Amino acid sequence: MSDSQLILYSITSIIVLLIIFFLIKRRQPKLNLPPGKMGWPFLGETLGYLKPYPATTIGEFMQEHIERYGNIYKSNLFGEPTIVSADAGLNRFILQNEGKLFECSYPRSIGGILGKWSMLVLVGDMHRDMRVISLNFLSHARLRTHLFREVEKHTLLVLNSWKENSSFSAQDEAKRFTFNLMAKHIMSMDPGKLETEQLKKEYVTFMKGVISAPLDFPGTPYRRALKSRSTILKFIEGKMVERVQKMKEGNESFGEEDLLNWVLKHTNLTTEQILDLMLSLLFAGHETSSVAIALAIYFLPGCPRAIQELKEEHIEIARAKKKSGEIELTWDDYKKMEFTQCVINETLRLGNVVRFLHRKAIKDVHFQGYDIPCGWKVLPVIAAVHLDPSLFDEPHHFDPWRWQTNGSRGPSSSCASVTPNNNIFMAFGGGPRLCSGSELAKLEMAVFIHHLILNFQWEISDADQAFAHPYLEFPKGLPIRVQRHSLL
Ligand code: HEM
User: Fold this and answer.
1) What's this model's pTM, rounded to 2 decimal places?
2) pLDDT at 28
3) Within 10 A of 349 (CB to CB), how many other CB atoms are there?
4) Cα separations (Å) of 129 from 210, 233, 409?
5) Do the domain assignments include residue 20?
6) pLDDT tens column, 329-388
7) CB-based contacts of 436: which residues, under 8 Å, 6+ apart?
8) What is the predicted pLDDT for the residue at 413?
9) Are 50 and 469 in contact (CB under 8 A)?
């Protein structure tokens, strides 16, 4: 073929390809995507989206985008075309259609750290099987019988160590409580022991990697977290080998109540699956509820009326116990903590421990006139709904009374499970992936608040506030100064 023939052939081919391309495009129905912009190539708008902001707000990025485009907008985040939803109806629709129209889809970096068998990243049948295990382990029955006692024991262990007029990080103390509780419950590890302290330290490094950029180079937080992951896994494996040996020797009573024992006895999971399950439950079970407790400690001094009403509620419970000669809290006492439940809901609504979830569309979806193409990332932003002024009066105001069932905002109203509207409060997610630990988390908060209110008054000793990175953290650790008191 001569040069001129080759050029002619190439030009004709390009023209034919262009015609085919335009014909295909014309045939495709025009998508009605939500408004928004895709930002820079690859990076999109990720940096703006992830810029830290005060936890009781939705952040500048979200605010500007909602004002400009509305509650549903398109963007390019985490390297993918994305639909961001601050719309209560769409968020509910997304979570309830898990596995049908949408699927959990966390960035690969999170899977790399939590492990491919972690419940937070699994989908389909394997997720269902793991979920059943976690629900068994955190069942209502176990909560009432076994976990309740442990929650109170670990609360007192932390609170009794606080010295009169001392100042310390409330965030660290809350973490000490929730970590010790989970480590005991998962692997029968005792608080204060060297191995427990070492494991807690590893988790600090691990956590920093979960939320860092996935840059696997020497010295990066991500690389350090991967190293921590393998140290933690080796540790859990050691515990597992020890336990299997004990079981072989017929020492059945050893660690009878913990998750490790349960999993070894009642499931056919592989070693790799057990390790990822334990690692991620220990992670999910202590990072979130410790932040929630720290947030309650932060919000309450700003609302003296709530402290007063909590005092009245808990003094009444404690006096009745004293009269009947009971010492430990019971499930019936817990059920009487109605105003405390309002404080818990309000803390979770305003603080938003988990701000948004990662999903992707697995089919083409139409919602309120918009198209969400199959394969696009979808981010239901639960924090934006909780702070939406059209859904909550004065959303930035800490107001536990908004959760009272009769809405009278008077001290005698009762605070049953969840009001203003179950459909818009999604602190624990929703649908088939609703947090398996939600009841435990609320119990931990209530019991901690009970003993805190009865035994201490506290002030924030160095101004601090929670920032969303998007994980929540008090930059100074929430320093508080405590004074003991006895209200009985
Ligand atoms: C205040 C504390 C907590 C908050 C705000 C919280 C929030 C959440 C949210 C929003 C999800 C849904 C994630 C998604 O759909 O992608 C979730 C899932 C989960 N949480 Fe929690 N959580 C808390 C405490 C706990 C505790 C104490 C445990 C106990 C181990 C726990 C275990 C889990 C597990 C296993 C899942 C995965 C459920 C599944 O995929 O089926 N969480 N949590």
Assistant:
1) 0.91
2) 60
3) 27
4) 24, 21, 43
5) no
6) 999 999 999 999 999 999 999 999 999 999 999 999 999 999 999 999 999 999 999 999
7) 119, 131, 134, 135, 138
8) 47
9) yes
Which pLDDT score is estimated for 24?
Answer: 60
Is 56 among the domain residues? yes
Number of domains in the chain: 1
Asked if the structure places residue 106 within a domain, the reply is: yes
In a domain, 276, yes or no: yes
Q: With a 6 A CB cut-off, is 455 part of the ligand 1 pocket?
A: no
Cα–Cα distance between 477 and 41 in angstroms, integer?
37
Task: Kindly report the CATH number assigned to the domain that includes residue 229.
Answer: 1.10.630.10
Name the least confident of 122-131, 186-195, 200-209, 347-356: 200-209
Average pLDDT over residues 270-286: 92
Alpha-carbon distance of 43 to 78, in angstroms, equals: 7
Q: Tell me which of 344, 435, 443 to substitute to probe ligand 1's pocket, judged by most ligand atoms within 8 Å of the beta carbon.
A: 435
Q: Is the CB of 281 under 6 A from ligand 1?
A: yes
Amino acid at position 449, single letter: I
Domain span holding position 183: 29-484
DSSP assignment string, 260-310 = HHHHHHH----HHHHHHHHHHHHHHHHHHHHHHHHHHHHHGGG-HHHHHHH
3-state secondary structure 92-149: HHHHHCECCCEEECCCHHHHHHHCCCCCCCCCHHHHHHHHHHHHHHCCHHHHHHHHHH
Rounded to whole angstroms, how far apart are CA atoms 54 and 448? 25
**Does the beta carbon of 288 sit less than 6 angstroms from any atom of ligand 1?**
yes
Is residue 435 a known part of a binding site? yes
Q: Which of 47-61, 84-98, 162-176, 397-411 has the lowest mean pLDDT?
A: 397-411
